[in-house]
Amino acid sequence: MKPFLFLGTRAEDVAADGEYDAVLRFSGLDEGDLRRVRLESVPLADAVGVVDTDDWSGIILGGGPFNVSDPLADKSAAQLRVEGELRALVEQVVAADSPFLGACYGIGTLGVLDGGRVDRTYAEPIGALPVTLTAAGCDDPLLGVLPATFEAFLGHKEAVSVLPRGAVLLASTATCPVHAFRLGRRVYATQFHPELDVDGLITRIGVYRDYGYFDPADAEGLIAAARAAEVHAPPRLLSRFVELFAR
C-alpha cells in the first residue's frame, strides 16, 4: 500500500502528538503507513521533496491555531509559509482529484479556492454540537457512513461563508452552515474534528486556553461538558477514508 501523508500545524508538542496519535488510532494506520510532517516547523519540500499525489494513497490535514482570516499583519512568517505551501498543494490536489481530508484548517485551506470565502461570521465555541448531513452528505461515500445527525467536537474562529464554485455541501450545524463539503469526487473538508475524543479535547482546552477560543475562566466548565458529551460517530470518517482510498 502507498502511504498516506499527514500534515500538522500545531507548534505545541502535546497537542501535535495527540492529534497524530488520534489519527493513527482511528484510521487504523501505523506510523509506516501515515507519514507525518509538522509544517509549522519544517517546509514541506524539505520534509518530503516535491509532492506527487501519485506517491500517496491520500493526504490528511489536521487543525491548528492558524486562521486564513487572520489579518495579514498578524500572521507570522511560519503561518505565511504554511499558507503558501498548502495553497499550492490543494490546487494540485483539486486538479488531480486526489484523495484529501482536511479537518478544521482544511476548511480554511480549501474554502478560499475558486470564489470561496472564509471569515469570522460563523465561529463556534469549543464543545460538542449536533451536526446534520445534507441529502448529498447522506449519499456521499465518505460522510454517508455517519448518522444523519451526530454529535461532534468542534471549536473554531472562522468558517466558510461562501462555498467555492462547484463545492457540494455535505453537513451543517444550526450555527454554522458549512461543516463539511466536497470538491470533485475525492477532496473533502470538515469543520468539526473527526479525530477528537474526550481526552483529546481536554488536552486542547489546556493547550489553547489563552488563544482566544474561550474565556480561560470557563475551562473547567468546558472540560465537564466534554466529559458529559456523547461523541462517538466522527472518528469513523478516518477509517472510512482509508477504506475508500488506500491503494
Automatic annotation (TrEMBL):
<dbReference type="InterPro" id="IPR029062">
    <property type="entry name" value="Class_I_gatase-like"/>
</dbReference>
<dbReference type="GO" id="GO:0005829">
    <property type="term" value="C:cytosol"/>
</dbReference>
<keyword id="KW-0315">Glutamine amidotransferase</keyword>
<feature type="domain" description="Glutamine amidotransferase">
    <location>
        <begin position="38"/>
        <end position="196"/>
    </location>
</feature>
<dbReference type="Pfam" id="PF00117">
    <property type="entry name" value="GATase"/>
</dbReference>
<dbReference type="InterPro" id="IPR017926">
    <property type="entry name" value="GATASE"/>
</dbReference>
<protein>
    <submittedName>
        <fullName>Glutamine amidotransferase</fullName>
    </submittedName>
</protein>
<dbReference type="InterPro" id="IPR044992">
    <property type="entry name" value="ChyE-like"/>
</dbReference>
